[in-house]
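TASK: fixed-backbone design
INPUT:
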């Protein structure tokens, strides 16, 4: 478990997949910038969760005051030679967007990746139109490393994808607003 000022991150299990959770991945606004296919089911989501193996991980993002499940965050695509992983996040609860939960969750998981998984680099990506996610990444010290031209088909046209990178040596939790993570076994 990782705990910040606003959120708690806990490992996600197949038992956490509720109807509300499945609804996030079938809501056009939530789905808009995700790299998953539209029309997810309880079975398809459970299969994805169950196929992840360490050190790849997926966590529930819980609003700290209520412990309500508001989204997920993952570190995946582990490259053991380059010590690199990809960060992905979704804030599924519409009323939880834009309140700093995603930023803190990204900061906590980046700190965990660097401190406990000995990562050298964390990468991430988003559609160029996803201004909120771009702001989050940049506020945490991620740098735009490239643009993939017309990489994502969205709303009837192709959109560019921004690729971000954060090197361990450039990550200072106190400088990027990360809460000191509390890890429990």
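OUTPUT:
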């Amino acid at each position: 478990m990782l705990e910040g000022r606003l959120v708690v991150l806990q490992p996600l299990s197949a038992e956490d997949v509720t109807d509300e959770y499945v609804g996030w991945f079938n809501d056009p606004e939530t789905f808009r910038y995700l790299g998953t296919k539209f029309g997810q089911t309880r079975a398809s989501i459970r299969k994805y969760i169950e196929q992840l193996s360490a050190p790849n991980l997926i966590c529930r993002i819980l609003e700290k005051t209520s412990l309500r499940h508001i989204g997920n965050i993952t570190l995946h695509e582990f490259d053991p030679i380059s010590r690199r992983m990809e960060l992905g996040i979704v804030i599924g609860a519409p009323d939880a967007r834009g309140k700093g939960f995603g930023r803190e969750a990204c900061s906590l998981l980046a700190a965990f990746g660097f401190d406990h998984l000995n990562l050298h680099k964390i990468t991430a990506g988003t559609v160029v139109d996803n201004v909120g996610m771009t702001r989050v990444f940049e506020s945490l010290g991620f740098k735009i490393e490239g643009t993939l031209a017309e990489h994502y088909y969205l709303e009837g046209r192709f959109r560019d994808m921004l690729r971000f990178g954060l090197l361990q040596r450039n990550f200072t939790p106190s400088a990027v607003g990360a809460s000191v993570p509390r890890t429990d076994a």
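COMMENT: The beta strands are 2-3, 7-11, 57-63, 68-79, 84-91, 121-127, 143-154, 157-167.
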